[in-house]
């Protein structure tokens, strides 16, 4: 039987409590906090809880070819060049989408638009698949110099654990291996993350002292602990911009009380700006309620405007894919289309699946007249939501977006369904186990009413400016 997400998280929480892991320093850093998410993803993949992400990996040729731009960007877009100080630094999301005619980060662009001309600022951009997609601007610097330096540092240095550290690592390793029946090279995982943290912490400390910002905004703080740690140690406020679903089982945010009995989590941001009131609470996250600020989701507000009132197509069912659960959803979609010929089936792939879906999901390669696969970003996702009466998926943030378009929503009972347990309990969505369950509930399920602004409210510029101006 496949182990569930909640089972894995509860093992983590239990071990964290018994060994006080979130507060134990290894090699002068809170090493467990560094590896928590990596280890979770590794275990979910190796236990078969989630499939491997379907995103196409870089070939050796691609990696070699991209190494030259790393050197070039390290010189021409060096974040350390120049003597200017900045009021605000923004670490945006590496993955960009075409929005308003150009590649932009949909989670932070509104911040740039709002503060441009009011504050001095700089955007620090990491490469995505070893490339940069945004149009070069004077205020954009690349982090390639730091990433290249970190790569070299890890090749030239090693970690020598103390006897006390080895004992702790050995005990935790045994606990994890017993719980999941896996071999886990915990020392190697710790070594890579500790070396990376040490180098990045030093470089970002240098950068922050040079730029002297008052505030730092970051997307995905749990993947940028060195940035958070360096800023907080210098007394600089760190504010995270929400980028996706936040639940009680998302280990980037979930630290139940028993796992943080000593209080603060060192590498957690000072504030989180959310899409709406729904997303995070101070019971399972180590942040005070007054520092969880619902400013809205500007991208949804703007993108949905053209589609929110268009007429839906009768009997259109939209399947929302994700790489880690695509093997389940693709089979369900095919079976549903084959049985329900009066329904029009749209299977929307995640961008990471575009290049590999024909090999990974053979059921999608079919000749059914009522079945269409969308393997590009040319058709706006929000248009598909507006045209569909129903949506079927797992735990993608897109599920919440579909709810905003009044799609009757069905959640497949696969690993990760725990992420949406609150929606299921409240009757906003319907959990289905298989094809017969979906067919039985398609027309009979009547969702409870919900406040759409609870999920995604319009951008509150006044509230956002109060956050920026304060302090």
Task: Give an overview in words.
The protein is of the alpha/beta class. 39% of the residues lie in helices and 13% in strands. The chain has a domain at 306-454: 3-Layer(aba) Sandwich (Rossmann fold), CATH 3.40.50.2000. A seven-stranded parallel beta sheet has the order 5-4-1-6-7-8-9. A six-stranded parallel beta sheet has the order 12-11-10-13-14-15, sandwiched between helices. Strands 2-3 form a two-stranded antiparallel sheet. It has 16 helices and 15 strands. It is globular, with a radius of gyration of 23 Å. The termini are far apart. The model has no long low-confidence stretch (mean pLDDT 92).
Topology record:
Blueprint: H1 5-19, H2 31-46, H3 60-76, E1 88-91, E2 97-99, E3 102-104, H4 109-115, E4 121-125, E5 140-142, H5 144-156, H6 163-180, H7 186-211, E6 215-219, H8 225-233, E7 237-241, E8 271-274, E9 292-294, H9 298-304, E10 316-320, H10 326-339, E11 344-348, H11 357-360, E12 371-374, H12 381-387, E13 390-393, H13 397-404, E14 408-412, H14 421-425, E15 430-432, H15 435-444, H16 461-469
Task: Write a concise synopsis of the structure shown.
The protein has 471 residues and is an alpha/beta fold. It has helices at residues 5-19, 31-46, 60-76, 109-115, 144-156, 163-180, 186-211, 225-233, 298-304, 326-339, 357-360, 381-387, 397-404, 421-425, 435-444, 461-469, and strands at 88-91, 97-99, 102-104, 121-125, 140-142, 215-219, 237-241, 271-274, 292-294, 316-320, 344-348, 371-374, 390-393, 408-412, 430-432. It has a domain at 306-454: Rossmann fold.
């Amino acid at each position: 039987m496949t182990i569930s997400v909640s089972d894995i998280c509860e093992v983590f929480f239990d071990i964290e409590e018994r060994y006080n892991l979130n507060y134990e320093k290894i090699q002068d850093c809170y090493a467990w906090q560094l590896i928590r998410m990596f280890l979770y993803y590794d275990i979910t993949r190796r236990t078969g809880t989630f499939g491997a992400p379907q995103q196409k990996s870089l070939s050796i040729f691609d990696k070699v070819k991209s190494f030259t731009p790393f050197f070039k960007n390290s010189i021409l877009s060096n974040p350390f060049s120049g003597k200017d100080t900045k009021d605000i630094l923004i670490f945006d999301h590496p993955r960009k989408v075409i929005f308003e005619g150009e590649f932009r980060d949909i989670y932070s662009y509104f911040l740039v638009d709002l503060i441009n001309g009011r504050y001095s600022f700089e955007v620090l951009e990491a490469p995505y698949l070893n490339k940069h997609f945004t149009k070069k601007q004077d205020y954009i610097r690349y982090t390639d110099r730091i990433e290249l330096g970190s790569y070299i540092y890890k090749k030239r240095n090693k970690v020598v654990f103390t006897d006390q550290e080895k004992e702790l690592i050995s005990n935790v390793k045994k606990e994890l291996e017993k719980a999941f029946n896996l071999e886990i090279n915990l020392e190697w995982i710790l070594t890579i993350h500790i070396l990376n943290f040490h180098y990045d912490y030093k470089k970002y400390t240098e950068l922050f002292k040079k730029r002297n910002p008052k505030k730092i905004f970051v997307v995905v703080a749990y993947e940028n602990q060195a940035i958070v740690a360096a800023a907080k140690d210098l007394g600089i406020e760190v504010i995270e911009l929400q980028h996706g679903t936040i639940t009680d089982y998302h280990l980037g945010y979930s630290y139940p009380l028993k796992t943080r009995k000593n209080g603060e989590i060192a590498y957690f941001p000072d504030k989180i700006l959310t899409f709406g009131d729904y997303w995070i609470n101070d019971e399972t996250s180590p942040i005070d309620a007054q520092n969880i600020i619902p400013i809205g989701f500007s991208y949804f507000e703007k993108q949905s405007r053209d589609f929110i009132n268009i007429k839906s197509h009768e009997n259109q069912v939209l399947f929302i894919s994700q790489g880690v659960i695509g093997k389940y959803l693709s089979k369900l979609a095919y079976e549903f289309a084959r049985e329900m010929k009066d329904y029009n089936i749209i299977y929307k792939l995640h961008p990471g699946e575009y290049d590999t879906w024909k090999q990974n999901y053979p059921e999608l390669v079919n000749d059914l007249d009522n079945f269409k696969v969308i393997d590009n970003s040319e058709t706006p996702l929000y248009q598909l939501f507006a045209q569909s009466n129903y949506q079927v998926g797992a735990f993608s943030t897109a599920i919440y977006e579909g709810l905003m378009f009044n799609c009757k929503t069905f959640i497949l009972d696969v690993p990760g369904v725990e992420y949406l347990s609150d929606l299921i309990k409240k009757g906003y969505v319907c959990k289905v186990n298989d094809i017969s369950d979906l067919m039985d509930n398609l027309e009979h399920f009547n969702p409870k009413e919900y406040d759409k602004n609870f999920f995604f409210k319009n951008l509150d510029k006044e509230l956002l400016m109060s956050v920026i101006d304060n302090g």
